[in-house]
Amino acid sequence: MKTLLIAIFLIFAPVFPAHAQQDSRIQMSGLDHLAAKASQTVDVNIDERLMRLASRVFDDKDEDEREVKKLIANLKGIYVKSFEFETEGQYTAADIEPIRTQLRGPGWTRLVNVTSKKEGMLEVYLLFNGDVVRGLAVLHTDDKELTVVNIVGPVDVDKLARLEGQLGIPDLGIGSQKNKKNDDEK
Amino acid sequence: MNDDYLWDKTGQPDPQIQQLEEILGTLRYQPRPLALPQKRNYFPLLAIAASILLALLAGGIWLRIRSRNEAPPQQVRVEQPAPKPIEAPKPATTGSASNPPILARNRIHKPRSASSVLPKQEREEALMAKEQLMLALRVTTEKLHLVHTRTQPNQIKNQHRVG
Question: Which residues of B touch A71 (CB under 8 A)?
Fold first, then answer.
Protein backbone atom coordinates (compact mmCIF):
# COMPACT_ATOMS: atom_id res chain seq x y z
CA MET A 1 0.00 0.00 0.00
CA LYS A 2 2.84 2.32 0.91
CA THR A 3 4.49 1.67 -2.43
CA LEU A 4 1.24 2.41 -4.20
CA LEU A 5 0.87 5.76 -2.45
CA ILE A 6 4.46 6.71 -3.18
CA ALA A 7 4.07 5.76 -6.82
CA ILE A 8 0.87 7.82 -7.14
CA PHE A 9 2.52 10.77 -5.44
CA LEU A 10 5.57 10.59 -7.71
CA ILE A 11 3.39 10.49 -10.81
CA PHE A 12 1.03 13.29 -9.87
CA ALA A 13 3.37 15.53 -7.87
CA PRO A 14 4.68 17.52 -10.86
CA VAL A 15 1.15 18.00 -12.22
CA PHE A 16 -0.53 19.83 -9.33
CA PRO A 17 1.90 22.73 -8.79
CA ALA A 18 2.09 23.39 -12.54
CA HIS A 19 -1.67 23.64 -12.71
CA ALA A 20 -1.81 25.84 -9.63
CA GLN A 21 0.78 28.23 -11.04
CA GLN A 22 -1.17 28.86 -14.21
CA ASP A 23 -4.51 29.54 -12.59
CA SER A 24 -5.16 33.22 -12.11
CA ARG A 25 -8.87 32.79 -11.59
CA ILE A 26 -10.27 34.23 -8.40
CA GLN A 27 -13.02 32.38 -6.64
CA MET A 28 -15.86 34.85 -6.16
CA SER A 29 -18.72 32.54 -5.32
CA GLY A 30 -18.56 33.73 -1.71
CA LEU A 31 -20.15 37.00 -2.81
CA ASP A 32 -23.25 35.41 -4.31
CA HIS A 33 -25.34 35.91 -1.19
CA LEU A 34 -25.05 39.70 -1.67
CA ALA A 35 -27.25 39.52 -4.76
CA ALA A 36 -30.32 39.24 -2.52
CA LYS A 37 -29.50 42.57 -0.89
CA ALA A 38 -28.39 44.39 -4.02
CA SER A 39 -30.59 46.70 -6.06
CA GLN A 40 -28.56 45.93 -9.17
CA THR A 41 -26.32 42.96 -9.86
CA VAL A 42 -23.97 42.22 -12.70
CA ASP A 43 -22.69 38.67 -12.80
CA VAL A 44 -20.63 37.67 -15.80
CA ASN A 45 -18.88 34.33 -16.09
CA ILE A 46 -17.20 33.75 -19.39
CA ASP A 47 -14.85 30.83 -19.53
CA GLU A 48 -12.49 29.95 -22.35
CA ARG A 49 -15.08 27.98 -24.29
CA LEU A 50 -17.60 30.81 -24.24
CA MET A 51 -14.84 33.25 -25.10
CA ARG A 52 -13.94 31.25 -28.20
CA LEU A 53 -17.59 30.89 -29.08
CA ALA A 54 -18.26 34.62 -28.69
CA SER A 55 -15.24 35.48 -30.80
CA ARG A 56 -16.82 33.62 -33.69
CA VAL A 57 -19.73 36.03 -33.91
CA PHE A 58 -17.63 39.17 -33.93
CA ASP A 59 -17.89 41.01 -37.19
CA ASP A 60 -14.45 41.16 -38.78
CA LYS A 61 -15.54 44.00 -41.03
CA ASP A 62 -16.20 46.21 -38.03
CA GLU A 63 -12.97 47.76 -36.82
CA ASP A 64 -14.13 48.02 -33.21
CA GLU A 65 -15.23 44.44 -33.04
CA ARG A 66 -12.01 43.34 -34.67
CA GLU A 67 -10.09 45.08 -31.92
CA VAL A 68 -12.12 43.38 -29.21
CA LYS A 69 -11.61 40.04 -30.92
CA LYS A 70 -7.87 40.59 -30.90
CA LEU A 71 -7.97 41.54 -27.25
CA ILE A 72 -9.77 38.42 -26.16
CA ALA A 73 -7.85 36.10 -28.48
CA ASN A 74 -5.55 34.75 -25.79
CA LEU A 75 -7.72 35.25 -22.74
CA LYS A 76 -8.91 32.28 -20.73
CA GLY A 77 -11.87 33.93 -19.07
CA ILE A 78 -13.53 37.08 -17.80
CA TYR A 79 -15.45 37.10 -14.55
CA VAL A 80 -17.30 40.07 -13.11
CA LYS A 81 -19.41 40.43 -10.02
CA SER A 82 -20.83 43.85 -9.32
CA PHE A 83 -23.42 44.77 -6.70
CA GLU A 84 -25.06 48.12 -6.20
CA PHE A 85 -26.97 48.71 -3.00
CA GLU A 86 -29.59 51.28 -2.08
CA THR A 87 -28.29 51.73 1.44
CA GLU A 88 -24.87 51.61 3.04
CA GLY A 89 -23.46 48.76 5.06
CA GLN A 90 -24.97 45.92 3.07
CA TYR A 91 -21.67 44.07 2.98
CA THR A 92 -18.79 43.76 5.41
CA ALA A 93 -15.03 43.47 5.17
CA ALA A 94 -15.43 39.78 5.95
CA ASP A 95 -17.31 39.35 2.68
CA ILE A 96 -14.35 40.68 0.71
CA GLU A 97 -11.65 39.03 2.78
CA PRO A 98 -11.60 35.76 0.77
CA ILE A 99 -11.00 37.82 -2.37
CA ARG A 100 -8.21 39.80 -0.75
CA THR A 101 -6.65 36.61 0.59
CA GLN A 102 -6.43 35.24 -2.94
CA LEU A 103 -4.98 38.51 -4.22
CA ARG A 104 -2.32 38.38 -1.53
CA GLY A 105 -1.22 35.04 -2.96
CA PRO A 106 2.03 34.45 -4.85
CA GLY A 107 2.35 36.17 -8.18
CA TRP A 108 -0.25 38.87 -7.57
CA THR A 109 0.97 42.45 -7.39
CA ARG A 110 -1.14 45.41 -6.40
CA LEU A 111 -0.50 47.95 -9.09
CA VAL A 112 -2.85 50.71 -7.99
CA ASN A 113 -4.63 51.48 -4.76
CA VAL A 114 -6.77 54.61 -4.71
CA THR A 115 -8.78 55.42 -1.62
CA SER A 116 -11.17 58.27 -1.16
CA LYS A 117 -13.89 58.84 1.40
CA LYS A 118 -16.33 59.85 -1.26
CA GLU A 119 -15.79 57.13 -3.84
CA GLY A 120 -14.40 54.27 -1.80
CA MET A 121 -11.40 52.11 -2.57
CA LEU A 122 -10.16 51.06 -5.97
CA GLU A 123 -7.45 48.48 -6.35
CA VAL A 124 -5.88 47.03 -9.48
CA TYR A 125 -3.89 43.81 -9.27
CA LEU A 126 -1.81 42.03 -11.89
CA LEU A 127 -0.66 38.43 -11.80
CA PHE A 128 2.83 38.06 -13.16
CA ASN A 129 4.52 34.92 -14.35
CA GLY A 130 8.03 36.19 -14.83
CA ASP A 131 7.60 39.29 -16.95
CA VAL A 132 4.37 38.12 -18.51
CA VAL A 133 1.01 39.27 -17.18
CA ARG A 134 -1.18 36.23 -16.56
CA GLY A 135 -4.19 37.89 -15.04
CA LEU A 136 -5.85 41.09 -13.94
CA ALA A 137 -8.11 41.84 -11.03
CA VAL A 138 -9.95 45.02 -10.15
CA LEU A 139 -11.58 45.49 -6.78
CA HIS A 140 -13.85 48.45 -6.16
CA THR A 141 -15.38 48.81 -2.74
CA ASP A 142 -17.69 51.69 -2.07
CA ASP A 143 -20.36 52.36 0.55
CA LYS A 144 -23.05 51.33 -1.85
CA GLU A 145 -21.11 49.32 -4.37
CA LEU A 146 -18.91 46.28 -4.59
CA THR A 147 -17.29 45.23 -7.85
CA VAL A 148 -14.78 42.51 -8.57
CA VAL A 149 -13.35 41.99 -12.03
CA ASN A 150 -11.09 39.11 -12.89
CA ILE A 151 -9.51 38.61 -16.29
CA VAL A 152 -7.73 35.29 -16.67
CA GLY A 153 -4.94 34.99 -19.19
CA PRO A 154 -2.35 37.25 -20.75
CA VAL A 155 -3.90 40.70 -20.63
CA ASP A 156 -2.57 43.13 -23.16
CA VAL A 157 -3.03 46.50 -21.49
CA ASP A 158 -2.20 48.31 -24.71
CA LYS A 159 -4.96 46.48 -26.50
CA LEU A 160 -7.32 47.17 -23.63
CA ALA A 161 -6.42 50.83 -23.84
CA ARG A 162 -7.26 50.78 -27.52
CA LEU A 163 -10.83 49.86 -26.62
CA GLU A 164 -11.32 53.27 -25.08
CA GLY A 165 -14.47 54.91 -26.31
CA GLN A 166 -15.41 51.94 -28.48
CA LEU A 167 -18.69 50.04 -28.23
CA GLY A 168 -19.83 52.16 -25.35
CA ILE A 169 -16.59 51.60 -23.49
CA PRO A 170 -15.46 54.88 -21.93
CA ASP A 171 -12.27 56.60 -22.98
CA LEU A 172 -9.55 55.63 -20.54
CA GLY A 173 -6.98 58.08 -21.78
CA ILE A 174 -4.22 55.55 -21.16
CA GLY A 175 -3.45 54.82 -24.79
CA SER A 176 0.18 54.64 -25.75
CA GLN A 177 1.94 57.85 -26.66
CA LYS A 178 2.61 56.42 -30.07
CA ASN A 179 -1.06 56.17 -30.84
CA LYS A 180 -1.66 59.67 -29.57
CA LYS A 181 1.11 60.99 -31.80
CA ASN A 182 -0.41 59.24 -34.77
CA ASP A 183 -3.79 60.73 -33.98
CA ASP A 184 -2.26 64.17 -33.71
CA GLU A 185 -0.60 63.81 -37.07
CA LYS A 186 -3.92 62.89 -38.60
CA MET B 1 33.57 -64.52 0.62
CA ASN B 2 30.35 -64.22 2.42
CA ASP B 3 27.37 -62.86 0.45
CA ASP B 4 25.65 -61.82 3.64
CA TYR B 5 27.29 -58.39 3.44
CA LEU B 6 25.47 -57.63 0.23
CA TRP B 7 22.24 -58.82 1.81
CA ASP B 8 22.22 -57.33 5.29
CA LYS B 9 25.72 -55.83 5.71
CA THR B 10 26.95 -58.67 7.96
CA GLY B 11 30.13 -60.66 7.55
CA GLN B 12 33.31 -59.70 5.77
CA PRO B 13 32.90 -56.96 3.16
CA ASP B 14 34.60 -57.16 -0.16
CA PRO B 15 37.09 -54.22 -0.58
CA GLN B 16 35.81 -53.53 -4.08
CA ILE B 17 32.27 -53.36 -2.81
CA GLN B 18 33.38 -51.04 -0.06
CA GLN B 19 35.07 -48.81 -2.63
CA LEU B 20 31.93 -48.75 -4.73
CA GLU B 21 29.92 -47.93 -1.64
CA GLU B 22 32.17 -44.95 -0.92
CA ILE B 23 31.92 -43.64 -4.46
CA LEU B 24 28.18 -44.08 -4.76
CA GLY B 25 27.54 -43.08 -1.16
CA THR B 26 27.65 -39.42 -2.08
CA LEU B 27 24.54 -39.91 -4.15
CA ARG B 28 22.68 -41.59 -1.29
CA TYR B 29 19.30 -40.19 -0.36
CA GLN B 30 19.62 -37.66 2.43
CA PRO B 31 16.38 -36.73 4.15
CA ARG B 32 15.74 -33.01 4.42
CA PRO B 33 12.64 -30.81 4.78
CA LEU B 34 10.70 -30.04 1.65
CA ALA B 35 11.74 -26.64 0.32
CA LEU B 36 8.89 -25.11 -1.66
CA PRO B 37 9.75 -22.20 -4.00
CA GLN B 38 9.23 -18.92 -2.16
CA LYS B 39 6.09 -17.03 -3.25
CA ARG B 40 7.11 -13.91 -5.14
CA ASN B 41 5.61 -10.58 -4.03
CA TYR B 42 4.01 -8.96 -7.04
CA PHE B 43 2.42 -6.13 -5.05
CA PRO B 44 4.96 -3.37 -5.90
CA LEU B 45 4.72 -4.20 -9.61
CA LEU B 46 0.93 -4.17 -9.42
CA ALA B 47 1.02 -0.89 -7.55
CA ILE B 48 3.20 0.75 -10.18
CA ALA B 49 1.04 -0.63 -12.98
CA ALA B 50 -2.10 0.65 -11.26
CA SER B 51 -0.52 4.08 -10.78
CA ILE B 52 0.45 4.32 -14.42
CA LEU B 53 -3.06 3.30 -15.44
CA LEU B 54 -4.52 5.91 -13.11
CA ALA B 55 -2.20 8.54 -14.52
CA LEU B 56 -3.16 7.64 -18.07
CA LEU B 57 -6.83 7.71 -17.14
CA ALA B 58 -6.49 11.08 -15.42
CA GLY B 59 -4.52 12.42 -18.38
CA GLY B 60 -7.17 11.23 -20.78
CA ILE B 61 -9.95 12.84 -18.77
CA TRP B 62 -7.96 16.05 -18.49
CA LEU B 63 -7.32 16.17 -22.24
CA ARG B 64 -10.98 15.47 -22.94
CA ILE B 65 -12.12 18.28 -20.65
CA ARG B 66 -9.52 20.61 -22.13
CA SER B 67 -10.52 19.84 -25.70
CA ARG B 68 -14.16 20.35 -24.76
CA ASN B 69 -13.34 23.77 -23.34
CA GLU B 70 -11.57 24.76 -26.49
CA ALA B 71 -13.45 26.01 -29.48
CA PRO B 72 -15.45 23.29 -31.12
CA PRO B 73 -14.34 22.38 -34.61
CA GLN B 74 -15.86 24.48 -37.29
CA GLN B 75 -18.81 22.71 -38.74
CA VAL B 76 -19.23 23.01 -42.41
CA ARG B 77 -22.59 22.21 -43.80
CA VAL B 78 -22.44 20.75 -47.26
CA GLU B 79 -25.60 21.45 -49.11
CA GLN B 80 -26.58 19.47 -52.11
CA PRO B 81 -27.27 21.73 -55.07
CA ALA B 82 -30.89 21.82 -56.13
CA PRO B 83 -31.52 19.69 -59.22
CA LYS B 84 -31.68 21.86 -62.26
CA PRO B 85 -34.39 21.28 -64.83
CA ILE B 86 -33.05 19.51 -67.85
CA GLU B 87 -32.79 22.01 -70.66
CA ALA B 88 -33.16 21.15 -74.26
CA PRO B 89 -29.81 20.96 -76.01
CA LYS B 90 -29.03 24.18 -77.85
CA PRO B 91 -27.98 23.93 -81.44
CA ALA B 92 -24.27 24.19 -81.90
CA THR B 93 -23.16 27.57 -83.14
CA THR B 94 -20.97 27.92 -86.12
CA GLY B 95 -18.38 29.93 -84.26
CA SER B 96 -17.76 27.20 -81.71
CA ALA B 97 -14.24 26.71 -82.98
CA SER B 98 -13.27 30.26 -82.08
CA ASN B 99 -15.35 30.32 -78.82
CA PRO B 100 -15.11 26.90 -77.26
CA PRO B 101 -17.78 26.04 -74.67
CA ILE B 102 -16.83 26.98 -71.12
CA LEU B 103 -16.21 23.86 -69.12
CA ALA B 104 -15.28 25.60 -65.89
CA ARG B 105 -15.43 29.12 -64.60
CA ASN B 106 -13.23 30.61 -61.97
CA ARG B 107 -15.55 32.55 -59.72
CA ILE B 108 -14.44 34.68 -56.83
CA HIS B 109 -16.34 33.40 -53.84
CA LYS B 110 -16.97 35.67 -50.92
CA PRO B 111 -15.48 34.22 -47.72
CA ARG B 112 -18.17 32.89 -45.44
CA SER B 113 -17.95 34.24 -41.95
CA ALA B 114 -17.48 31.74 -39.14
CA SER B 115 -20.74 32.82 -37.56
CA SER B 116 -22.75 31.86 -40.64
CA VAL B 117 -21.75 28.22 -40.29
CA LEU B 118 -22.73 27.98 -36.63
CA PRO B 119 -25.83 26.00 -35.87
CA LYS B 120 -28.74 28.11 -34.70
CA GLN B 121 -28.54 27.07 -31.05
CA GLU B 122 -24.79 27.54 -30.92
CA ARG B 123 -25.09 30.91 -32.62
CA GLU B 124 -27.62 32.06 -30.03
CA GLU B 125 -25.27 30.96 -27.29
CA ALA B 126 -22.40 32.76 -28.98
CA LEU B 127 -24.40 35.99 -29.29
CA MET B 128 -25.35 35.79 -25.64
CA ALA B 129 -21.73 35.18 -24.69
CA LYS B 130 -20.69 38.14 -26.81
CA GLU B 131 -23.20 40.36 -25.05
CA GLN B 132 -21.94 39.21 -21.66
CA LEU B 133 -18.37 39.69 -22.79
CA MET B 134 -19.04 43.25 -23.87
CA LEU B 135 -20.74 43.95 -20.56
CA ALA B 136 -17.72 42.58 -18.69
CA LEU B 137 -15.37 44.68 -20.79
CA ARG B 138 -17.48 47.78 -20.19
CA VAL B 139 -17.38 47.26 -16.43
CA THR B 140 -13.63 46.60 -16.56
CA THR B 141 -12.79 49.66 -18.61
CA GLU B 142 -15.15 51.79 -16.56
CA LYS B 143 -13.27 50.84 -13.41
CA LEU B 144 -9.92 51.39 -15.07
CA HIS B 145 -11.16 54.75 -16.25
CA LEU B 146 -12.11 55.58 -12.68
CA VAL B 147 -8.63 54.59 -11.54
CA HIS B 148 -7.12 56.79 -14.19
CA THR B 149 -9.19 59.83 -13.33
CA ARG B 150 -8.42 59.45 -9.66
CA THR B 151 -4.71 58.93 -10.11
CA GLN B 152 -4.29 61.87 -12.49
CA PRO B 153 -6.70 64.54 -11.27
CA ASN B 154 -4.43 67.47 -12.09
CA GLN B 155 -3.98 66.42 -15.69
CA ILE B 156 -7.75 66.19 -16.16
CA LYS B 157 -8.31 69.61 -14.61
CA ASN B 158 -5.73 71.07 -17.01
CA GLN B 159 -7.41 69.32 -19.93
CA HIS B 160 -10.71 70.93 -18.97
CA ARG B 161 -9.05 74.33 -18.78
CA VAL B 162 -7.54 73.89 -22.22
CA GLY B 163 -10.83 72.59 -23.62
Answer: 137
CA atoms within 13 A on the CB side of A154: 9
Which residues on chain B are in Cβ contact (under 8 Å) with A174? 144, 148
For the stretch A34-55, pLDDT in tens is 999 999 999 999 999 999 989 8
Q: Is residue B148 a part of any domain in this protein? A: yes
State how many domains chain B has: 1
Give the domain range for residue B161: 120-163
Q: A113's torsion region: left (phi>0), alpha (psi -120 to 50) or beta?
A: beta
> Using the beta-carbon criterion (under 8 Å), do B136 and A167 form an inter-chain contact?
no
Q: What are the pLDDT digits (tens) for B39-71? A: 778 888 999 999 999 999 999 999 988 877 654
- Angstrom distance (rounded) from CA A54 to CA A31: 26
CB within 8 Å of chain A, chain B residues 2-41: none
What pTM did the predictor assign? 0.57
Collect contacts of A62-70 with beta carbons under 8 A, ≥24 apart: A64/A166, A64/A167, A65/A167, A67/A159, A67/A162, A67/A163, A67/A166, A68/A163, A68/A166, A68/A167, A68/B133, A68/B134, A68/B137, A70/A159
